[in-house]
Write a structure and sequence with these properties.
heterodimer, A: 300 residues, alpha/beta, six-stranded mixed β-sheet, four-stranded antiparallel β-sheet, 11 helices, 14 strands, B: 549 residues, mainly alpha, 26 helices, globular
C-alpha cells in the first residue's frame, strides 16, 4: 500500500543551523500520526518542507506516492493544511475566506462546510480580524477539512480551542482516520495525542528520536521508580546503572525513569543508603516524553 | 539598542534613513558633476531673480547652486519628509495595526511617553539623515572642485529637517486620533504634496501670491535658506505648527480606546451593511471578491486607488485653467528658462500648453502617484503575503508560485489601468476646460506611457519582493529606481558626456519622445511593456526556487 507521507533522508539547514537532520519516516493511510517535540525541535520545518513551502537541503518527501516538489500542485488538491502560526486575511469574513480557498481548490461541498462550522460552533459571518484566536483557529480547521482531503497535515491544530471544541476536533480527526484518510498532527498537548493518535513520532534537535505506537510507547519497559530514604542521597551512585534515563532528586527521595534490571537498582539503593519505601509504576506518555527530552544521554 | 522605546524605534529606522540620505548625496554628486560641465553663466545673467528664488536656486549661478536646488531642496526635502511621515504613521497607528500596542503599553509606560519617545526618535533619525546630507553638502562640491562660497548648507539641511519633522507629526497626530495607518500616511502625504504644489503654482497666478502662506511647504522654501541662511521666522512657524500637532497627537492617543490588530471597514464593507446596497455589495465584496487571487488582490487596495485617482484627477483638472489664466509675462519667462533649470521639470518648454501640462502633471506628480500605487501593490503581492504569514495557507492550495505571481500581476495591471484612465480623463477634461490645443490622442498616448512606466516600477517591487520576501526592501528598491531613473533622464542629457545614459532610464521611454506633442511612440511603449513583462517573468523563477519566509 502507498504510504500517505514518506520522507527519505529529509534534511534542512538554515545557514549553519541544522533544523532537520536525515529524517526517515513513513505514515500510513488510515492512521493518526502524532508528531511530538519541544519548541524548535524541527516539527514546523518538517511540515513546511513536506508541503514544498520550503525546500530540503537534502533528501526527499513523497505524499500519496508522489514527489512533494514535482507534484506539488496536484498534491495540494488532496491535502488539508493548518499552519502552526495561522494567519488569514483580516478584512475577509470567515465565509469569504472559506469561499476564497474553496474557489482555489474546487470540489467543496458547502453543506459539509456548514456541518463543520456547526460542529466547531464557528460563526462564519465575522471578519477574520475580529475573531479571537480560538475562533480564527476554527476557520483554519474548517478550511483544512472542507474538501475532505486524503491527507490532513496540521501544525499545533488545537491552539486556542476550548476543551469542548477540542473534543469535537478530536472526533473529527478520528472520523477522518476511520474513513481511511491520514491525519498528521504536531502537538505539544500530549494528552490529545494520547487520545487520538495511533502512532507517535518524537523529534528532538531536528532528529527523529523514535517512532512508536502509542501503546508500544506505553508498554516500553520504562517505569517511573520513586525511592524514599531516611536522609539525603547522592544521585551519582545511580547514574551509572544501566537503564537509568533520568533522575530527579527531591529532598529524601529520587524519581528515576528506568528500564533496566530492578535488582541492580535495589542493590545500589540498599547497599549505600537506608531505603525506606519504594513506589514503581508504568510511565505515562508525559514521562516518556520528558525522558526523551531531558535525558541528554539518550541515544539518537 | 533595545533599551527603551526611543532607542528601539531609532534602531529600526536609522538604516533606512541613512540609505535615503546617502542616495540623495550620490545624486547631489551626479547633479553637481553634470552641472559642472555646463556653462551656466549666461543662464543666470538672463534669468529673472524672482524665478530663481521660486525654484529654490541660490543666487550666484554655479553648479553647486543648481544641484542643491534640484537635489536637496526638492528631492531631498520630499524624501526626508516622506521618511518622517512613515515614522509618524508607525508611531501609534502602526503599532495598533500590528497588534503590538497592547503589549507595549502593558509595560510601565504611559501613552504620552510612548508617543513622546517615538516622536523624539523620529526627530533624531531625521537629524541623523540631515547630518549625512550636511556632510555630503560640503564633501561633494569639494571633491569635484566646485566653489562653495556663499552657501549655507547647514541652513538648508536644518530647514529640510524641521520641515520633515512637521509632516511626520501630522501623520502621528492623525494616527493618534484614528488608529488608522492608512488615514495617517494618506493625510500627511496629501498635505505635503498639495502644499508643495501649491507653493510652486499659486504665486505664478497674479493676485494669488499671498495664498501660498497658507501652505506649510511655503515656510520651508520661502527663505531660500541655502543663500540666505536660516529663516528663523519661518522655522518658528513650522516649529510652532509641529508642537501644535504633537499636542493634538497627545490628546488624541489618550482619549480613545486603542485598537487591537484592527480591521478597517472599507467602503465596500459599509455598502454591505446598508440595506439598499447590500445585495450588490455582497456580490462585489463577497463572492466576486474571493473568486480568484487576482480579484481578491484588486479588492485589497481600493482605498489607495481612490485616493491616488482623486489626486491625479484633481491635479490634472486644475492645470488647464491655471495655464490659461497665467500671466503672460511669467509664461514668456518660463519659455526662456535655461535647460539646466528646465531639466528639473523634464526639459520642457513651459510656455507652451503641452510643456506646461507635462511639467505640472506628467513629470513628477504622475510618476509619483503611479509609483505609490504600483509599488505598494507590487511589494505586497508576494512579500506582503509572506510577511503577513498568509502565503503558507495560500500556497497550500493547488496554486503554483508562478500562478500566484501572474494573478497578482493581473491585479497590478488593473490598478495601473484604472489610474491611467483617470489620468487620461482628467487631462482631457483640463485640455477642454482650458481650451488648449492638444489632440486627445496625444493625451491618451502620454497617459498610456505613464501607465506602462507605473507598471515597470511596480514590476521592480514585485521582482524584489518575490526574490527576497521582504516588502520593505522591495519598496525601497523600487522607489530608489524611479527616483534615479527620473534623475538620469532629466539631468544626464545636460552634459554631452553623459547624454547617452538617458536611454538607460525607463523615463526616457515614457517622456523622451514628447508624447504630448508628438503622440504615441509605439517603439518606446514596447520597450516599457517588454521591461515590465521581463520583470514579472524573472520574478517567477526567483520566487519558485527559494524558501517561503
Amino acid at each position: 500500500m502507498t504510504a500517505a507521507i514518506k520522507t527519505e533522508g529529509l534534511t534542512k539547514h538554515y545557514g549553519t543551523t541544522e533544523a532537520l537532520i536525515d529524517l526517515d519516516m513513513e505514515v500510513e493511510m488510515g492512521e493518526v500520526f502524532g508528531f511530538l517535540g519541544p519548541n524548535g525541535a524541527g516539527k514546523t520545518t518538517m511540515i513546511r518542507t513536506v508541503l514544498d513551502l520550503i525546500r530540503p537541503t537534502a533528501g526527499r518527501a513523497d505524499i500519496l506516492g508522489m514527489d512533494t516538489h514535482v507534484n506539488a500542485v496536484e498534491l495540494r488538491n488532496r491535502i488539508g493544511y493548518v499552519p502552526g502560526d495561522l494567519a488569514m486575511y483580516p478584512s475577509l469574513t470567515g465565509r469569504d475566506t472559506l469561499t476564497y480557498f474553496a474557489n482555489l481548490r474546487g470540489g467543496v461541498d458547502w453543506s459539509y462546510v456548514h456541518d463543520l462550522a456547526e460542529r466547531l460552533q464557528s460563526d462564519l459571518d465575522v471578519k477574520v480580524g475580529d475573531y479571537s484566536s480560538g475562533n480564527r483557529q476554527k476557520v483554519g480547521l474548517i478550511q483544512a477539512f472542507m474538501n475532505r482531503p486524503d491527507v490532513l497535515i496540521m501544525d499545533e491544530p488545537s491552539t486556542g480551542l476550548d476543551p469542548l471544541v477540542q473534543r469535537e476536533f478530536q472526533a473529527m480527526v478520528r472520523e477522518a482516520a476511520s474513513e481511511g484518510r491520514c491525519v498528521f498532527l504536531s502537538s505539544h498537548t500530549l494528552s490529545e495525542v494520547q487520545r487520538v493518535a495511533d502512532r507517535v513520532g518524537i523529534i528532538r534537535h531536528g532528529r527523529l528520536v523514535d517512532v512508536e505506537s502509542v501503546e508500544g510507547l506505553r508498554s516500553k519497559a520504562i517505569r517511573s521508580v520513586e525511592l524514599f530514604f531516611d536522609d539525603t542521597v547522592d544521585e551519582s551512585v545511580f547514574t551509572s546503572i544501566p537503564g537509568v534515563h533520568d533522575i530527579r532528586t527531591n529532598e529524601h527521595s529520587l524519581v528515576i525513569s528506568f528500564d533496566g534490571q530492578m535488582a541492580k537498582l535495589l542493590e545500589a539503593a540498599t547497599s549505600h543508603f537506608n531505603l525506606i519505601d519504594i513506589n514503581s509504576h508504568e510511565a505515562d506518555l508525559e514521562e516518556i516524553f520528558l525522558t526523551y527530552y531531558v535525558d541528554d544521554e539518550v541515544s539518537v | 539598542m533595545l533599551a527603551n522605546v526611543f532607542t528601539k524605534t531609532s534602531r529600526d529606522r536609522l538604516t533606512g534613513m541613512l540609505i535615503g540620505a546617502v542616495a540623495i548625496a550620490v545624486m547631489l554628486w551626479m547633479g553637481t558633476a553634470v552641472y559642472k560641465d555646463v556653462d551656466l553663466t549666461l543662464y543666470f545673467e538672463t534669468m529673472p531673480k524672482a524665478f530663481i528664488e521660486l525654484m529654490g536656486i541660490p543666487d550666484g549661478g554655479d553648479a553647486a547652486g543648481l544641484a542643491f536646488g534640484a537635489i536637496y531642496s526638492f528631492m531631498g526635502a520630499l524624501t526626508m519628509a516622506g521618511f518622517a511621515i512613515s515614522m509618524g504613521t508607525a508611531s501609534i497607528a502602526g503599532e495598533e495595526m500590528n497588534g503590538t500596542m497592547g503589549l507595549l503599553l502593558s509595560n510601565p509606560r504611559s501613552r504620552t511617553s510612548v508617543l513622546a519617545s517615538k516622536s523624539l526618535s523620529m526627530a533624531a533619525v531625521v537629524a541623523a539623515g540631515g547630518l549625512v546630507l550636511w556632510g555630503a553638502g560640503y564633501a561633494v562640491p569639494a571633491m569635484l572642485g566646485v566653489d562653495m562660497s556663499g552657501y549655507h548648507i547647514g541652513a538648508l539641511v536644518f530647514h529640510m529637517s524641521v520641515n520633515a519633522v512637521f509632516y511626520g507629526l501630522v501623520a502621528a497626530a492623525v494616527g493618534a486620533w484614528t488608529g488608522s495607518a492608512k488615514a495617517a500616511s494618506g493625510t500627511a502625504i496629501a498635505v505635503m504634496v498639495v502644499s508643495y504644489l501649491a507653493t510652486g503654482i499659486v504665486p505664478l497666478v497674479e493676485g494669488l501670491d499671498g495664498l501660498a502662506k497658507f501652505f506649510p511647504w511655503y515656510y520651508f522654501s520661502n527663505g531660500n535658506s541655502v543663500s540666505n541662511g536660516i529663516a528663523w521666522g519661518d522655522m518658528a512657524v513650522l516649529g510652532g505648527l509641529s508642537v501644535l500637532f504633537l499636542g493634538v497627537a497627545v490628546v488624541g492617543v489618550n482619549r480613545r480606546d486603542l485598537r487591537s490588530r484592527t480591521v478597517g471597514a472599507s467602503l465596500i464593507d459599509r455598502l454591505r451593511e446598508h440595506p439598499m446596497t447590500k445585495k450588490l455589495a455582497d456580490r462585489i465584496a463577497g463572492s466576486a471578491r474571493v473568486s480568484r487571487i487576482a480579484m481578491k488582490t484588486v479588492s485589497e487596495n481600493q482605498g489607495l486607488l481612490v485616493i491616488c485617482s482623486i489626486i491625479m484627477f484633481y491635479i490634472a483638472l486644475m492645470m488647464g485653467p491655471i495655464y490659461s489664466f497665467m500671466d503672460e509675462a511669467i509664461l514668456s519667462i518660463a519659455g526662456q528658462l535655461p535647460d539646466a533649470l528646465l531639466a528639473m521639470i523634464g526639459g520642457v518648454d513651459m510656455s507652451t500648453a503641452e510643456g506646461y501640462l507635462q511639467a505640472e502633471i506628467f513629470v513628477i506628480t504622475g510618476p509619483a502617484t503611479f509609483a505609490v500605487l504600483t509599488i505598494l501593490v507590487g511589494s505586497r503581492a508576494i512579500a506582503g503575503e509572506e510577511q503577513k504569514k498568509t502565503m503558507d495557507l495560500l500556497l497550500a492550495n493547488p496554486v503554483t508560485r508562478s500562478k500566484a505571481i501572474s494573478e497578482k500581476t493581473l491585479a497590478m495591471v488593473w490598478y495601473a489601468a484604472v489610474l491611467g484612465l483617470v489620468t487620461f480623463l482628467g487631462t482631457w477634461a483640463t485640455v477642454l476646460l482650458g481650451g488648449l490645443d492638444i489632440p486627445v490622442g496625444n493625451v491618451a498616448a502620454t497617459s498610456f506611457l505613464l501607465t506602462l512606466l507605473g507598471l515597470v516600477v511596480g514590476g521592480v517591487a514585485l521582482l524584489v519582493g518575490s526574490a527576497t520576501g521582504r516588502a520593505r526592501v522591495a519598496t525601497y528598491t523600487a522607489s530608489g529606481m524611479i527616483l534615479f531613473s527620473y534623475f538620469v533622464f532629466s539631468f544626464m542629457p545636460l552634459s554631452e558626456n553623459y547624454a547617452g545614459f538617458a536611454k538607460l532610464s525607463p523615463f526616457y521611454y515614457y517622456l523622451g519622445s514628447d508624447p504630448l506633442v508628438n503622440g504615441m511612440n509605439w517603439g518606446h511603449g514596447a520597450v516599457l511593456a517588454g521591461l515590465f513583462v521581463a520583470l514579472v517573468l524573472l520574478a517567477m523563477p526567483l520566487f519558485e526556487r527559494r524558501d517561503l519566509r
